């Protein structure tokens, strides 16, 4: 197990891998998975390498560019830094912190801390895995813009949630994988798209494995009305994330938030900290990521300006994430998800955790557990389906980002210039009214009272306008943001399929070259068909959820919009009635 | 009478006076009134003087800076000039024209053509007589800003209305005062405020005149409930300005618009061109200006982008001006106003005109006809009243300008960025809906149809938002703009009173110096009391109209706003109903 280690020179410390790295055999290298927590054991190797130890105790060399180090302790106590353009305490604490570290440690290995692979740390809505700009540059620096994910600080969640003061913990016995500090989605993408050489194991592992592991796991795919579908449980799992409580340990040196999660199955609440969610996410991604898009946790989101608001927002998004996982027939039924939701006691939890971490049916090997109850597909059809889904998810990604962009602009207008304008209109009416009152002319109080009331009505409208986005646009934004995250996982999932298709296409060539047997070729075709069924089942699951979600959010939005405009009309009608008809 | 004269060297031509100029006796100078049309008879005098002839045939020297010359004929035919920022034909024709003349004739006397005394030819809402900035700088160049008076071209109205092609006319026998090309209000103010030396005759003329002219005119002031009031006619005069018709003369070389004015007294329409309104304005200003604020005609307003829109807008404003004049008990009963509204035939009209032009009860002498039916006021009370009105009109002027400023901003937002945003929201919903349609997943047409409908609804809302200001804000703007013009006349009217008060204060000194007799001093006090009654009657008239106008316009505005928001709510409710409740 990893040892807690920290020397005064900063030579040894905690770090995590930014990208996947595959060790070359015999070179004394250490394979690391992106996001994996490492303990740096020797920083003085030179030649761009450092020595690190993983949570299993293996020690080896890793390219230092692949490692992101935790900041030195002192920086966490630094407060009172100048805020750049964010007014809240939270942002002022974290944003300049990373900047400071960058600026003052030019040649220091710590300075990679803030290396944000998605570029532009201030880019709302731009934390999409492909690094695509979503037009949000226009929103930079606007304090009232909708606060999406990808806000200023990668390190925020980790530090704030788990230790508001203190060295990033590395508790032995709790599993080292919890220490990732970086962003999942962006760096994962980087690893797949920009550094294909250090990608996850390709589909060959599954396509060509001699005898698929025969575990007790069995994921059946049926033919439903809409085509291949997962096997859905009879009652849908659901849970409520609630009651965030601040806890502390080490005599108050470290504080954290614990959420209460109550599943509808046991109706018995369990407690989890953010880092437990993060652990769960890692396990699900490892296990199902090749077949099922596992959306990132709502991390790195600095939404609230106050602690309370921040916690509320995070809880809301954790709820959204958990609901989506509960709704997934494969995820929700998995052992790891079940143990997370309904462990009986600490021991039960620890056992479950250890078991989950040892699970070997991960990555592309998940396909070995999938059993479609239908005839094998032709490779041509497999490719067609794959292309279709690829096009659709790309198109929807664009559509969703467009909504986020216009929504963000609308949010800014509704909370910024528009209410200011209504307020000024209101003030102008009231000012003229008070001038009229000073006329010395008798009997105009009916007019001036009515004008004052009309002015006040416009001030009320100003306030309504400013508050409305929280009541309706917020949910449109949250839903689309969630979908953006989800859609950002599809290129990975689809990518595995595309790679498999390419492999199958090479079948004849590989046979001719004597690299695989004819039997292998047939097996590959059969297995890529299984993968296609899996993708289709997943797409059908996605579509049915999408229809439900958009139907719901559009209804809610329009309902609130109707109320909004009706209330304004009623207020104005009231104001109108105060004028006399001459 | 003036002779039509135009020599090829441009030596002789038409011009008009920019400011009042009082000739010094024995210096061969010619007194001119601001706005008066002159014929330049000799441009080669030198020393900053030119020789000019007025419409009565008097010839004399005038400072050349006081004269604005008409442009040479050729420029009027110049079309196809690059537009600067105004898209319409009208604006493109006129705005660059003046610029061109300025640029190409640097040292030419013609280059004074575009000298705009109010500064900033592009300054919406800034044609107020005091030249005060109303914050409209922000609206510069915005094509959709509310188009108030004082738009680009001083020369526009004159040229376009009276001669779309051809030399500015100087018809003999029609009265020379019609040829003014400049702006009344701004240049008048300049003359009074910036060049006090060339002001109108002061109140002394009235205060010290030996025996007030005993005409048949008699303007009685009664004590009403609210204080001194004018004598109101039993039925209020009213008229309808309608049916603008394009006429032409000189075989089509000159075209003009003729409006039909039908008073409620005779119910018989009379026709008038804009320049006849202008003549009427001049007469009313001459006759009543010292006692009654006569608002400027809606001249110099380039509001419509198309001929039709322009004519409609001008007609609307001429109607507003005529309605205000009709409502005034003194103005509406005057001979000159009556003949304008109800002349029987051309001969009747010409006779009436000639008579009006010969009227000598003008300027401060109007006070000789005023007869208050109440005890003389104490000079202290006179001064108090005067100060009170001065304060009120200034405060209201500020209030009105504030409304115009915020209204103009709101206009821009409602016709510019806001509908664009709603349109983009609508498009984003529709785009996502069409992506959904491409999913290949069955049975989602209810959702996509509903989403498309919702998107279209937001596009409809976009259009409603853009069109709404014309339905409600327009009238708020027009009313306040009218009041801005009216309030801009008060400093003049009040100024005459202040000057009179000062004169009375000097009474003892003047008696001591032997300049006036004790009897004169008593007379002055009595007459300043008459002036105060007149001001009070006028203020009470103003107040009662103000209450009526603002009550009406606020009601109209709120009524339309209620309709607007109710329609939006109804549209959204309809859109909402298309989603299925799951």
Automatic annotation (TrEMBL), chains A, B:
It comes from the Eukaryota. It is a peripheral membrane protein. A 1,2-diacyl-sn-glycero-3-phospho-(1D-myo-inositol-4,5-bisphosphate) binds at residues 273, 275, 314. Residues 111-184 are annotated as: Disordered. GO terms for molecular function: phosphatidylinositol binding. Residues 10-72 form the SH3 domain. CDD domains: PX_SNX9 (cd07285). It is found in: Cytoplasmic vesicle membrane. The keyword Iron does not apply. Residues 152-162 have a biased composition (Acidic residues). Gene3D superfamilies: Arfaptin homology (AH) domain/BAR domain, Phox-like domain, SH3 Domains. One of its GO terms (biological process) is cleavage furrow formation. Keywords: Cytoplasmic vesicle, Membrane, Protein transport, SH3 domain, Transport. Residues 111-142 have a biased composition (Polar residues). Signal peptide: none annotated. Residues 237-347 form the PX domain. Belongs to the sorting nexin family. This is Sorting nexin.
